[in-house]
Amino acid sequence: MPVTLPDNLPAIEILKKENIFVMSQLRAKEQDIRPLKVLILNLMPIKIAAETDLVRLLSNTPLQIEIDFLRLSTHQSKNTPIEHMDAFYKEFDEVKSSNYDGLIVTGAPVEMMEYEEVSYWNEVSSVFDWAKHHVTSTFYICWAAQAALYRFYGIPKYPMHEKMFGVFKHTINDRSFPLFRGFDDEFYAPHSRHTEVRREDIEKHKDLKILSESDEAGIYIVVGRGGREFYVTGHSEYSLYTLHNEYSRDKDKGMDIDIPKHYYRQDDPGQKPISRWTGHGNLLFNNWMNYYLYQETPYDVDQIEKLGNISLPSETAL
Predict the structure, then answer these.
(1) 204 annotated ligand-binding residue
(2) Which end of the chain is less crowded, N or C, counting CB atoms within 10 A of the terminal residue's CB?
(3) What pTM, to 2 d.p., does this model score?
């Protein structure tokens, strides 16, 4: 799939070496089709790595996608050059009058804080609220999933006795749901978090449905409004070495951290990680873009606002 990215974004050269088709904005303008418009609010500390992981997944479909990156004006990244942020990221005031087919909100390293204590909570809440009326479907990841469940439904998060860290086996609760077309009965996904949401709190809300979970890792995917929102507590977007880099970073800081579970060959950090989730990670994003963006979004993006609080049908025709 041709992914349209800002000219000179570092991810372009990385992905070209992986034989992934990316397209400059100049070339995309010459094609007479309407690309899907996807906005990415990147809250991860190492933003270039997160950009590359997400674009890699968004590339695995025949659809053309136009991507904008969003940053928060109330938070300045300490781990990404300001020149990069200025060149490739927009602020909320620049996009809030626009409509998007899809929005992805990443995780953030603030999960041990109360939501209201996060310095950018008010601004990120405004983005969540805006998305309900200006985005066809939103994909919330990890902390963003917990934060959005709290914002919309008051669902609390709970600290865990030890970090949920590794690659875990999951099952599907509703195989008829289009998000899981092509999935095996069991599939793997990475997790990296210190907090969790619980089944009993989610089941109190009729607008929410638990789609996938894990015996070890707990709740994985929750859907709201028939597909207008997906809350994903893990990281199917992670590349092979992302967990390794997190583990090495924390070890170098002298932190007491266990090795990621079910990740390294023979549980040996000196050996190469085992790729268990890449295929289903690609399929997850591919199905989201096909069934909940391409097949549901209006051709005229200005009509997205008319969707308002309307739920998408939970069953989408093939």
Answers:
(1) no
(2) C
(3) 0.87
